Amino acid sequence: SELIRGFLLSGMPCPSSCPPGLLALMAPGLALMATFSLPSQAGDRRALPVEKPSGVKGRTLILLDVNTKSPVRIISENFLSLQLDPSIIHDGWLDFLRSRRAESGVSARSSEPSAPRTSSRAAAALGSTGGSLRLPPPRKERYLKNYEDDIVRSDIALDKQKGCKIAQHPDIMLELQREKAAQMHLVLLKEQFSNTYSNLTLTARSLDKLYNFADCSGLHLIFALNALRRNPNNSWNSSNALSLLKYSASKKYNISWELGNEPNNYRTLIGRSVNGSQLGKDYIQLRSLLQLIRTYSRANLYGPNIGRPRKNVIALLEGFMKVAGSTVDAVTWQHYYIDGRVAKVTDFLKTRLLDTLSDQIRKIQKVLNTYTPGKKIWLEGVGATSAGGMNNLSDSYAAGFLWLNTLGLLASRGIDVVVRHSFLDHGHNHLVDQNFNPLPDYWLSLLYKRLIGPKVLAIHVAGLQRKPRPGRVIRDKLRIYAHCTSYHNHNYVRGSITLYIINLHRSRKKIKLAGTLRDKIVHQYLLQPYGKDGLHSKSVQLNGQPLAMVDDGTLPELKPRPLRAGRTLVIPPLTMSFYVVKNVNALACRYR
């Protein structure tokens, strides 16, 4: 809970009933997606070059200025949102999302202080500045069982919870839950490889718990209905979804909706494909259902959440947009950079891999500009690796290069929302582990939430260009993005600017702030791996201090390192960093 609270609305007031931690990570909107992890592999652990001594001069001094007059893009306040894996409904983790205590990081008898974790506080930290929580449909049918009985039972369950109280679970229960989840993980892997999936039953009580978690974390829930139930004529069978909609409306749950997940894979899942035109008709049918229910007559509807936009997938999207382009409030798709079964740490340092997202954005925008110019685009399901990721790799410091570049690139290209897969799941693409310990991408996301505002600024650099070698493409290994500093961060006055920088070079780089940024005081937030594992590390340090939960419900203070006015920024090799340039009084950043 503390983890999410720190991440979300770090400056927005939270209702007194909110749990004190989870809200910061999450923002209005909940996304939940099903992924499956594969056996972990060691990956590439070759030693990487270390930073040169401070006395050695850098080769190039880079001059950096920012256009402070007007933003080039304005993204959603809920730009960084989260997704949950639907498997939590039947593997037991749903009952622990509201748990206050998880397994302590060290023994109670240890001389070192213990640091128990709470999921809801983690989520709340990310949600404190706004966001969404998405729940995608499982591979097989989802339905409400024993609808009338569940209404009664769920009322009793919520009466016991009474708002946002955090449940207490003994340590032995968490240990048993991890064993249960490990067994379920093997079942899911078997289903994935055999392409045969068991039914997943969503009861009213499960929906109550899910909504309570999102609501108490400051997040808006986005629920993806099952689209795999088809009539003989291949149209969507909505009878099951209607019962769920009626129940949610009876509880006055504020939910946005989707239909299905990766429709380009339906042939693999149910033995029949659904073309773009039919998918569009299905969405029109869902919109009609929503309009019949007063609570959801104006609810947001998102889709079609296609996979990687290859030629056949683009054709599906075009057919969908022709029929239902005006029906959805935003068009969604997914992106996973690399196959988690074969990834190496050096893959995460390749600029060619980072740039694959840019081509996908171009393809999606081209279709939308043809059929619905100005329609918002969401990247709704993104992770470093597919197939559940790889231990000590997709959950390590190295994966942060892809994640931070994803955030910067999407914002600069005008993508309105990005939904991160996943907050907690079976694989290794998540933000917290099964002890609810924050992983490197969590801390990266938390800093982003606290420091980055929705207004994107243009940057101007000099000194980056080098003479290209014949036959070799020069790709940018120093990535710089600029935004107005978050209005919710009361440590900085309006008009301040935040830079975030990725240095993929194996040598340090020097940046001199110029123009409107010259001679301003700068606050540095430098993230580096902590411990002997280097880029494989699952722990990080901020300005030289390791980051960890202080106690059961308290995030550490994210202290900046002040730099004197006019000082050159020295960016260590293979690092990520944020720099708040104070008191710029940027015209673009003075007003919301």
* Count, helices: 14
Radius of gyration over C-alpha positions, nearest whole angstrom: 23 Å
| Shape estimate | globular
Q: Give the tally of structural domains.
A: 2
Low-confidence stretches: 4-58, 100-119, 140-162
What is the count of β-strands?
24
Beta content = 15-25%
Helical content class: 25-40%
Question: How is the biggest beta sheet arranged?
Answer: 9 strands, parallel
Termini separation comes to 28 Å
Give the overall pLDDT as a whole number.
78
CATH T-level fold name of the largest domain: TIM Barrel
Level-1 CATH class name of the largest domain? Alpha Beta
Helix/strand-derived category reads alpha/beta
Named at the architecture level, the CATH assignment of the largest domain is Alpha-Beta Barrel
Which superfamily, in CATH terms, is the homologous superfamily of the largest domain?
A: Glycosidases
Structure in words:
By secondary structure, this protein is α/β, with parallel strands linked by helices. It has helices at 3-7, 88-91, 119-127, 147-161, 171-194, 204-216, 239-250, 266-270, 276-292, 311-324, 351-354, 356-371, 400-412, 440-451, and strands at residues 30-32, 61-66, 73-74, 80-84, 132-135, 142-143, 200-201, 220-225, 255-259, 301-306, 330-339, 376-386, 417-421, 452-457, 459-462, 478-485, 497-503, 509-513, 522-529, 540-542, 545-546, 561-563, 569-571, 575-581. It is globular and about 70 Å long. Helix 9 packs parallel to helix 10 (311-324). It folds into two domains: 61-71 and 473-589, Immunoglobulin-like (Sandwich); 76-109 and 120-131 and 163-457, Glycosidases (TIM Barrel). The longest helix has 24 residues, at 171-194. The strands form four sheets. Strands 1, 4, 5, 8, 9, 10, 11, 12 and 13 form a nine-stranded parallel β-sheet that branches. Strands 3, 14, 16, 17, 19, 20, 21, 22 and 24 form a nine-stranded antiparallel β-sheet that branches. Helices cover 28% and strands 21% of the residues. It is built from 14 helices and 24 strands. This is HPSE2 protein. One of its GO terms (cellular component) is extracellular matrix.
